[in-house]
Amino acid sequence: MALPDDKLISERPxxxxxxxxxxxxxxxxxLVAGAGLAALATGFWPLAVVAAAGEAIWMLxxxxxxxxxxxxFDKAWEREVEEKRNEIRDRKLALLSPEARERVFKxxxxxxxxxxxxxxxxxFSGQLLRGELGRVGDLVDDFIDVSGVCGRYEExxxxxxxxELESQRRRFDxxxxxxxxxxxxxxxxxxxxxxxxxxxxxxxxxxxYLGTAKGQLDLIENTFRLLADEIVSMRSPGELGARxxxxxxxxxxxxETAKETERPYLEAEGIRL
Length: 273
Hints:
By secondary structure, this protein is an all-alpha fold. It has two domains: 1-95, no CATH class; 97-273, no CATH class. It contains nine helices and no strands. It has helices at residues 17-23, 26-42, 45-61, 66-95, 98-120, 126-158, 162-178, 184-230, 237-268. The radius of gyration is 29 Å and the shape is elongated.
C-alpha cells in the first residue's frame, strides 16, 4: 500500500540553494570557462588568477545579496518547486483510472475559468487575490490525492467477497457450538472467527470512507462550477476565500480519516504516520 502523502517539498530553500544558483548558472559558468580557456590559449596565467579572484568574491557575496535573491534566486527556487510539484502531479495522475483523470482535467478547466473570471472582476485587486487563487490550485491537488485514495480502496474492495466471509463466520460459529472448551478445534475456530470478523469490519470501514471521500470529490466539482457562476459578481476576495477555506477543511478531514484508515496496514509494514 502506498504512503498517503508524498514527501513534502520545502517551501523555503534549503541551505546551499542560493550558493548553487550563484555558481551553476549559464552566465557564471560561461565567464569561468571563458577566462580559463583564454588563459590556456594565450599562456597569460594572470588572467586566470584574476578570474579566480573575481569568482571567489562573487561566490562570497552573491548568495547573501538581498537584491539578487529578490530579482533572481527566489524566482529560480519558485520555478524549481513548481517543477517538482508538477512531477508529483504527473506521477499521481498516471496512477488514476481514465475516468478519474478525465474528472481532474475538467476540474483544471474550471480552475482556469475561475482564474480568468477573477482577473476580470474589477473588485479584486491583484495583491489581495493572489492568496485566494492559490487555494484553487491547491484544491485541484487535493482532488488528485483523494481520487488516488479512492482508487486504491476500490481496487482493494474488489478482492473482498462479503458473502464468502459471512459464510465463513457462520461455519466457525457452528464449530464453536459443536466443540467443547479445551478442544483444540474449538480454539482454532475461535481464532479464525476473530480474523473473519476483523476483515468484515475492515471492509465496512473502507466502504464508509469511500462514500465520504467520493462525496467530497463531488462537492469540490460542484463548488468550482458555482464559483465560476458567482465570481463575476463577488465584491471581495474574502467571499472567494471563505468558500475555498470550507472546502479545504472538508478535504483535510477526509485526509485525516484516510490516515487513520490506513494506519494499521502502514504500521504493520513499519511505516509511521
